[in-house]
Write a structure and sequence with these properties.
The complex is a heterodimer of chains A (91) and B (418). Chain A has 91 residues and is mainly β. Chain A is built from no helices and eight strands. Helix content of chain A is 0%, strand content 64%. The longest helix of chain B has 21 residues. The chains are: A mainly beta (91), B alpha+beta (418).
Chain lengths: 91, 418
């Protein structure tokens, strides 16, 4: 089964910017507001840039140690979108 | 016994990001780490695994296993669709790391490549290469992600370097040189050798060559004249001894695309539109490689199990989407039209360096070239298939681009499509 749940909703995100570190960690989201809940991210899985037509977007795969979230930052429109999430599974 | 081994210091480093797509997904999704997962091109009940995580492989879920079979083996098995931009990011990061050590870096596929240190100065000893190997491993974890592991193999030629990289998966670093080569061969089965699968394996066994050591001990003339019946026998004789025979560029022979028809049908409009779309994507590949094609082949398989194949060779080469489609559709129109098509494909062959800058005697290609270049530039800027033939509109909705597995030549092109 594919556990990915598509969400595609604009969200409010707080981002942490660092200096003097590897480019993959220069900026990463620390928390977001989704469905009136504040979700704090504990780890950044992977960040990768890609393009949508002419627009540059950055994909952040993050986790709160329960669920995994895929956030998209539109570098032109300066918007954050929660693209999808993978609910955590107890093993 | 003197085997005539290559006694040069090992200076080829093979870097292998095993289970690359699955590992990239586990890197991105911490909840999927240490779990059996797989990646497929298109999710469907009967889709196949194109990359499996180590945990899945341990359960017998390997490349080619259907999703239904995988779930039967492991009900918790997770299958995800491919995400080319993610893999491209990992590929580019890995390549950048490798290129920081030597100007001679060659990616063999999306997830593996070699660093050639043979032209570097004599300070690049085996010990130094081992240190570089561990440094690359550390950089991969830091610059790509903490879950990402690579295998490193160091040897005097590509074949042995790849063999070394496979000795201790998924996080190994091994060196093969003339000093330990015999011990390595003694620890392997014949078909553990890269390039020896069922075909060559049974051919070798028919000559009582059933272990790597017996393969090494076989005479060169036996391998060349009887076992392989070609120069391949001599190549294997040298390859096994650590001499480089695989350092060459392969010539581009064909360009093409194939597609498993979504909802098999004999609907003329549907099939034409999808094939037209395949012809347009093939045209983009052709121009990406800067070649023209004189030959066109089209093949179909039908639900009944029967097949259709035809090809034609022309005196002049083509490169525009419209010219390619004109030639493809002439062949396609000859098919038995009452039959339901299951798979379709086209191949362009007799490829020649582009003659687009030459002025034609009877037909001026300058205008065609300008129009094609303009359309390609628009599509590069605004996304693939912003401008395309109206006839292929239906095809764009059905045909999805697959992740190219064998080589990395079309990766940039694929990402534009995405």
């Amino acid at each position: 089964m594919d556990p990915t749940q598509i969400i595609n909703q604009r969200v409010e995100v707080a981002v942490f910017y660092r200096k003097d570190c590897d480019v993959s960690m220069l900026a990463y989201p620390v928390k977001m507001k989704f469905k009136n809940q504040e979700i704090k991210f504990t780890r950044l899985g992977l960040r990768h840039p890609t393009s949508k037509g002419r627009r540059m977007v950055h994909i952040f795969d993050v986790t709160d140690d329960v669920n995994d979230y895929r956030l998209e930052f539109d570098a032109q429109g300066l918007t954050w979108t929660l693209i999808s999430m993978i609910p955590g599974v107890s093993l | 016994m003197n085997y005539g081994l290559n006694t040069d210091e090992p200076r080829i480093m093979w870097i292998d990001l095993n289970s690359a797509f699955a590992m990239a997904e586990q890197q991105a999704h911490p909840s999927l780490r240490n779990r059996p997962i797989g990646v497929t091109n298109r999710l469907s009940p009967e889709c196949c695994v194109i990359a499996a995580s180590y945990e899945a492989k341990a359960l017998g879920i390997k490349v080619g296993v259907r999703r239904s079979e995988a779930i039967a083996l492991c009900p918790d098995f997770v299958m995800l669709e491919t995400d080319p931009p993610k893999y491209h990011h990992v590929y580019k990061k890995l390549m950048a790391i490798m290129q920081s050590y030597s100007p001679k870096v060659k990616m063999k596929s999306i997830d593996e490549g070699i660093i050639d240190f043979r032209d570097m100065d004599k300070t690049y000893t085996t010990e130094r290469l081992i240190a570089i190997g561990y440094e690359i491993k550390a950089r991969v974890k830091k610059e790509i992600g903490d879950y990402t592991k690579i295998n490193v193999g160091i040897a005097p030629n590509r074949f042995l370097a790849k063999t070394a990289a496979g000795l201790h998966k998924p996080d190994g670093l091994d060196v093969i040189s003339y000093r330990n080569l015999l011990d390595v061969y003694k620890s392997l089965e014949l078909q553990d050798l890269n390039g020896i699968a069922d075909g060559f394996g049974s051919r070798l066994r028919s000559f009582k060559i059933d272990t790597p050591m017996k393969f090494l001990e076989a005479r060169e003339d036996l391998l060349r004249k009887q076992v392989f019946k070609s120069i391949n026998g001599m190549h294997w004789f040298n390859r096994l001894r650590g001499f480089e025979v695989d350092d060459f560029e392969t010539k581009l022979g064909t360009v093409g695309r194939q597609w498993v028809v979504k909802n098999p049908s004999n609907d003329e409009d549907y099939l034409r539109s999808c094939l037209h779309f395949l012809a347009e994507t093939t045209g983009k590949k052709l121009r990406f490689r800067n070649v023209d094609a004189r030959g066109v082949a089209v093949w179909l398989t039908f639900q009944s199990g029967e097949t259709f194949y035809d090809k034609r060779t022309y005196k002049t080469g083509v490169f525009t989407d419209s010219d390619i489609w004109l030639r493809v559709s002439k062949i396609f129109n000859q098919r038995p039209k009452h039959m339901s098509v299951r798979t379709m494909g086209l191949t362009l062959y007799k490829l020649e360096p582009s003659a687009r800058s030459q002025i034609g005697l009877f037909h001026n290609t300058e205008k065609d070239q300008h129009v094609t270049t303009a359309v390609d530039e628009i599509n590069d800027m605004y996304g693939m298939f912003t401008v395309h033939s109206g006839d292929s509109l239906e095809g764009t909705k059905h045909v999805k681009q697959k992740i190219p597995f064998g080589g990395t030549e079309y990766f940039e092109l694929l990402l534009k499509r995405q």
